[in-house]
Amino acid sequence: MHWNSYYMMGQFAEKHLNKDQVLNILDVGSMEVVDSGTYRPIFDVPAWTYTGCDMAAGDNVDVVINSPYHLPFAKNTFDVVITGQVFEHVEFFWELATEIARVVKPGGYLCIIVPSTGQVHRFPVDCWRFYEDGMKAIAKWIGFDVLEARVDENSCWKDAILIAKKP
Fold first, then answer.
1. Which terminus of the chain faces fewer neighbouring Cβ atoms within 10 Å, N or C?
2. Torsion angle, alpha carbons of 104, 124, 127, 5, to 10
3. Strand (E) positions, the chain?
4. How remote is the C-alpha of 11 from its chain's centroid?
């Protein structure tokens, strides 16, 4: 992850999450890659429980998943699901979005951060770039209400962010 992605995720947490409310948070694609940092410090709040999941064991991974299209959690488990710098590496991102929607509680939040530009960076594949309309389309696909969808034109990757809420 790069500094702008971390900053954007921090802004999401600051604006939308209550530090006094008990929250169960899932980070999809949580592994720290090459000392790049993780979102965990943002969510290190006494009332919050953070779970990181990824396709392989590693730093910041609490749960190893076999497929991004089948999360090993019950329906309506999490108050918040975050994912940053992941959707561009998922061949069928709409399937992952559908699976994420399944595990978010009604009234829960989804925050996706993903590049809209930048060089190819396979991990193990690099399939997509996203813009504001694409982020809104993801929310529409899974039936979530868009709270924010935009591209940060000032960052090196021109990160796109979607903040959405499950009705």
1. C
2. 60
3. 23-28, 48-54, 63-64, 78-84, 104-114, 145-151, 160-165
4. 14
Exposure letters 127-145 (e unless 16+ CB within 10 A, then b): eebbbbebbebbbeebebe
Q: Using alpha carbons only, what angle is made at residue 142 by residues 140 and 144, rounded to the nearest 5 degrees?
A: 65
Domains and CATH numbers, the chain: 3-165 (3.40.50.150)
The tens digit of pLDDT for each residue in 101-112 reads 999 999 999 999
pTM for this predicted structure: 0.96
pLDDT of 34: 79
| DSSP code for 104 | E
Residues in the chain: 167
